[in-house]
Amino acid sequence: MVILGIETSCDETAAAVVRDGKEILSGVIASQVPVHSPFGGVVPELASRMHLEYIIPIIERALGEASISGADLDAIAVTQGPGLVGALLVGVSAAKAMAYALGKPLIAVNHLDGHIQAAFLADEMPREPFICLVVSGGHTALYRADAEGGSHLLGATRDDAAGEAFDKVAKILGIGYPGGVAIERLACGANAQAINFPRSRFDKDSLEFSFSGLKTAAANFVRTHGVPGSADSGPAGTVTLEDFAASFQEAVADVLVEKSILAARQCGLSNIAAVGGVAANGRLRERLAREAAAQNLRLYLPPVKFCTDNAVMIAAAAYRTWQRFGPQPGMLEIDAFSR
Ligand code: KG4
Ligand code: ZN
Q1: Among the atoms of ligand 1, which is closest to the Cα of residue 170?
Q2: Measured from the CB, is residue 179 less than 6 Å from ligand 1?
């Protein structure tokens, strides 16, 4: 079954052609990073406009690279939500129009389900049930992914998502967007113990997260001492910008790793996966791998390019939805949803 996947939930316009949920025939992404960079974050109105500009060429390129015509597709899949509603609307409208014009079934995909299904794009497929840490710009949560294809929420963040904290702190530091990438680049080889940032754990059995305290601590540090390494650095002159980035990254990774292992223990499962934009972080991947090995757990990580938003995971998720439920009625009437 050959599916065209379309993803426009945030700031990437992406399309991909995937056979049977695994064989990637093409996967193209138009990133809007240069457009949003000067603002230090995604500007929703700009994102919608850029999607509008990119969507048709990106779909054409995905079909071209897969050497396939629209008529050869078995279905068209699109991210319906959650995300920026104006951005989603562009993908949903394009997908509906294509499905109608070509007479093909339309499959609506939940963006989070797309991220979770990216776990199956790891070198080795995870065996269900497994613990899935979904860690992105909009979400930080632990799920139990079951063989029947459903996922059961175990715990989520009470406030900011981890990626959101990376982005906000990077903005405070003035080091660029997306924040996670900028912080990781600075952190490489720096002293992660330089600042003892707070780790929110709640009680010892809790699978909930909180990153607002960490974000506030980072902001307070800058308010008191200035941006480390900059000319106005205060008394904490020995702490460099790189040390700050490494200490912040370590605080985020510590909690994500601990809670993922705890979830596996609580559920009595031995397989864990981490997906979403923050799962692209090299330090997090390294820490998860080390801790999983120490605890005799098997870890599944999608390649970095399938952690951040992409359409391959949407086509892959659609395939599994189709296998479970088959064609759904009324799909040409679907609307994008933000939450
Ligand atoms: O999954 P994603 O592309 O979009 C959402 O669904 O949110 O995730 C984007 C988030 C951003 O907050 C970005 O800063 C973060 O993922 N991110 C990273 C890295 N690459 C992207 N965070 C830490 N380290 C990275 N290498
Ligand atoms: Zn995402």
Answers
A1: 14
A2: yes
Q: Structural domain boundaries of the chain?
A: 2-116+308-333, 126-301
Q: Best substitution site from 11, 168, 255, 278 to test ligand 1's pocket, by max atoms within 8 Å of Cβ?
A: 278
Looking at residue 230, what is its pLDDT? 47
Structural fold of domain 2-116+308-333: Nucleotidyltransferase; domain 5 (3.30.420)
Show the low-confidence residues of the chain (pLDDT under 70): 230-237
Number of other residues whose CB lies within 10 A of the CB of residue 283: 18
Q: Do domains 2-116+308-333 and 126-301 have the same CATH topology?
A: yes
Q: Which atom of ligand 1 is nearest to the CA of 12?
A: 3
Q: In terms of DSSP H, where are the helices of the chain?
A: 33-36, 44-65, 85-102, 111-117, 162-173, 179-187, 212-225, 241-267, 282-294, 312-325
Residue 163 CA, ligand 1 centroid: distance in Å: 5
Model pLDDT for residues 184-204, shown as the tens digit of each residue: 999 999 999 999 999 999 999
